[in-house]
Amino acid sequence: MEKIPQHYFAFNPQSVRWMDMVFVAPIMIYAGVKGDFKPYVKFSLIAIGSLTFLYNGINYVTNLQNEEK
After folding, report:
1. DSSP string spanning 3-20?
2. Of 25, 27, 29, which is closest to residue 53 (Cα–Cα)?
3. What are the CA-CA distances from residue 57 to residues 15, 39, 44 (Å)?
4. Residue 33 in 3-state DSSP?
5. Model pTM?
6. Which is it for the CA torsion 4, 6, 9, 13, positive or negative?
7. Helix, strand or coil, per DSSP, at residue 59
8. Given this model, what pLDDT does residue 6 score?
9. Each residue's pLDDT tens digit, 29-41
10. Spatial distance between the Cα atoms of 49 and 52, rounded to a whole number of angstroms
11. Which of 6-10, 16-20, 49-53 comes out lowest in average pLDDT?
């Protein structure tokens, strides 16, 4: 896969990944744990929040390692 040049983006994609990990995923997990929702909605919020954190965390670390090379 060809790497897209950084100037192609209007913003730094790494900062979006970081914001997903720090803000979006924890809010989704918190809403799933504390929210007054049906069980399948609670499970979905917790699962999607956890997977968002995991996916973006892996991509963030991988891109940091690739930048060092």
Report:
1. PPPGGGSSS-HHHHHHHI
2. 25
3. 12, 27, 19
4. helix
5. 0.78
6. positive
7. helix
8. 58
9. 999 999 999 999 9
10. 5
11. 6-10
